[in-house]
Amino acid sequence: MTATIKDVAKRANVGVGTVSRVINNHPSVSDEIRKRVLQAIEELDYKPNAIARSLKIKSTKTIGVIIPDISSAFYPEIVRGIEDAAKDLSYNIILLNTDLKREKEKEALNMLKEKKADGILFISNTVNKNLKREFKKTGIPVVLVSTKDLEGEIPSVTIDNERAAFDITNYLIKMGHRKIAIISGPKDDPNAGITRLEGYKRALLESGISVDENLIFYGNYKFKSGYDAMQKILMLKERPTAIFAASDTMAVGAASCAMQKGFNIPEDFSIVGFDGVELAEYFYPPITTVKQPRYEMGSKGMQLLIDILRGETKQKSVVLDYEIIERKSCREMGGI
């Protein structure tokens, strides 16, 4: 049978209040009594109830982490960064997957409210007005990771997606490519879909290249959508020489489709991705990509949340650097 605080008090021959003070490290307890209580706790294998303790110290030392798709290769490194930072800061995490469903997001928030989580890290999915309303209902501080609130009301940790897309498109332009297709994210995704598409368009226009709407395709960041988009690209009468996929997983899907149809990468198509997941690194040929600092996103998000909980910062957002990783999926086309 599980030991209770009363059992500990009886074993140590002290009152329940004294046991509570020892557990909460109160300075008023003598060393001799503290030692006796700790010994009783060890002998009885007593584990204080975290929720019950939180009613007194107003903290469960628990952070809720909400991710939209647990099967995605993008999120594990972010979660690892969160876990490591949480451990260093003596916090536990509750990981919740929502499968990109708004109703499951609402359920996750309600559960974290019931569990009296100290804070919430919300990863990647679009933040709309309804979701912000649900955040406020919980009364729990929230930090966004790899997404942001367009009104800037909720603290976030991101990269500059528009500038990163501009840079990777410009990379292709400098290699001599002028006919560049894009496999974008969803049209209604203001975080990565719209911003990366805008960066692509800006790079073309600043280099004097017209934006061809026939070279714009849309996906959902997954392998199949990249594969399906490439099938459409292969049906074009005038095919592009280069393709920018707004996720590495879509880039691998596109490259796989082209190679299955008898085309070669990069001889027939240069392909670049976005994110820096291992899938693109170990694909053949390895895919050139924009590497997001995913581990740092997680650890910075956790640190920012704890700083907010402690009242140590009023910082609203953190924008991290990214890196273009050049591999074997692109070739020079000569001068522009």
Automatic annotation (TrEMBL):
The keyword Transcription applies. Keywords: DNA-binding, Transcription, Transcription regulation. GO terms for molecular function: DNA-binding transcription factor activity; transcription cis-regulatory region binding. InterPro entries: HTH_LacI, Lambda_DNA-bd_dom_sf, Peripla_BP/Lac1_sug-bd_dom, Peripla_BP_I. Residues 3-57 form the HTH lacI-type domain. Pfam families: LacI (PF00356), Peripla_BP_1 (PF00532). SUPFAM superfamilies: lambda repressor-like DNA-binding domains, Periplasmic binding protein-like I. This is Catabolite control protein A.
